[in-house]
Amino acid sequence: MIPICETHASGVLAALLLVACAPSFEHYAERSRDHAADRLRVRRSWQPPSVESGETPADVRRLLRRQLTSDDVVRIALLNNRDLVAAFGELGVARGELIEAAALPNPTLEEGVVRLPIQGDEPPHVELAVVMGLTETVLLPLRRSAADAAMGAAALGVTGATLSLAFAARSAFVEYQAAEQALAGHRDVLATAEAALEAATILREAGNVAEIDLLTERAFHEEARIAVSRAETNVHVARERLTVLMGLWGRDTRWRAVPALPSPAPRNREIALAHVETRAIARSLDLEISRLRILAAARRTTYTRVAGLVPDVEVGFGAAHESGEWAVGPAFRVTLPLLDQGRGRSIAASAVLDRLRAGHVALGVRIRSIARLSRARLEGARDRAIQYRDVVVPLRRRIVAERLLDFNAMQIGVFELLDAQRSLVEAEARAVQELRDYWIARIELEQLLAGRIPEPEPRGSSSDTGGASAERRGH
């Protein structure tokens, strides 16, 4: 609770200064951009497009001329995403509320009476009284301090929206690269299925295989064709999601990207996983936004309680013109809080404050849980991606090489060789899936340590990078 007697004069003076020279919208926007740039570790010199602009910025067009990297798509999103422009609009709303909260009450013409004599030469009788809310002025620092905290929460909210957009663009880029690689894998499976079907058709015509074997190969071929079609759709979905995040349309949607996912980062460049819970809590923008909202609610609650208990005093001056002379003196009006002390408003404000405090504790518990889960996901995904890259795929390649030697020595048939090739393609597709999971887990942990809770990962067909699995057949 703020001592009114100590803060009245300075608070009213600060309010007058705020109304007279309040920082501009661009001042708050620049601070939010700088804060986001520090946490993203990117250049600060980006400027989102204006609301009225429908043109793609020149910097974006320059980036679109080359194959895009993860850093490129983040920069394009920050420069060109209109949803981010809309998020910055919240700063204007909060700034307007801050200025409104700091505004002094308007003077009120309490009385305005003019009596004109009907007969005689008597001068007219005039009475005037102008008053201004003293209680509202005294309580102004409380109201303004609540708006200050809300302004801080709004500024951090915009910073958080910027972080969310940047990491969403990174995740969408990984999804797109994985979808492209999955499509290539499915096409390899289809090529293998076509070869197997052709061989089965020839052998069936020669009477060397049973009808069931030919039907089996046809079924695998059709399933592989469907898998390719699904993978093509997944590429379109992933590409469109990334295009939307980059704010592109028209001819700009013909962008190109670096095709392959990179290998896992070396150990010495991996995210440090020690004390990840503590770091996530310390860096959390979400917790800081929650704290500022609690502070704003606490100050509003104090204002509501005080305003309901103290008399509503308005003071000013009055003037009267009678018998040819003017008389002036003080004027005042007092509303006593006898019947309505704002108890309902105070209870509602206290309930809001209690709800925010409980939510703050729950948010801390959730962030700690997400930090532990993100660490486990990253460690597991990294191990699996490396295992597939260094062990499983090389083993499958060796098996294909050995099967080819056996086939050339006429020790196995064509179907056994094609089975080995199919298993290799499926292992390579699974390696892409594990690599994609690693990068998504890494990006989510980076986002958490940058201060923003990752949004739930979209689950859908776009993440299906597995090959067209096949039953093992005995030919």
Give the secondary structure arrangement, pairings included.
Layout: H1 4-21, H2 25-40, H3 58-64, H4 70-80, H5 82-101, E1 108-115, E2 125-133, H6 134-138, H7 140-205, H8 211-245, H9 276-283, H10 285-309, E3 312-322, E4 325-335, H11 343-408, H12 414-450
Antiparallel strand pairs: 1-2, 2-3, 3-4
Helix pairs in contact: 1-7, 2-7, 4-7, 5-7, 7-8, 7-10, 7-12, 9-11, 10-11, 11-12
The succession of helices and strands, N to C, reads HHHHHEEHHHHHEEHH
* Strand-residue proportion: 5-15%
* Overall 3D form: elongated
Domain unit count? 1
SS field, number of helical segments: 12
The main β sheet shows up as: 4 strands, antiparallel
The tally of strands reads 4
Helix content: 55-70%
Low-confidence stretches: 1-8, 459-463, 465-475
Q: Based on the structure given, which CATH architecture is correct?
A: Up-down Bundle
**What is the average per-residue confidence, as pLDDT, rounded to a whole number?**
84
| Ends apart, CA distance between termini | 84 Å
Q: In angstroms, what is the radius of gyration?
A: 35 Å
CATH class: Mainly Alpha
Kindly name the structural category: alpha+beta
Let me know the CATH homologous superfamily: Outer membrane efflux proteins (OEP)
CATH names the topology as: Outer membrane efflux proteins (OEP)
Strand order of the largest sheet: 1-2-3-4
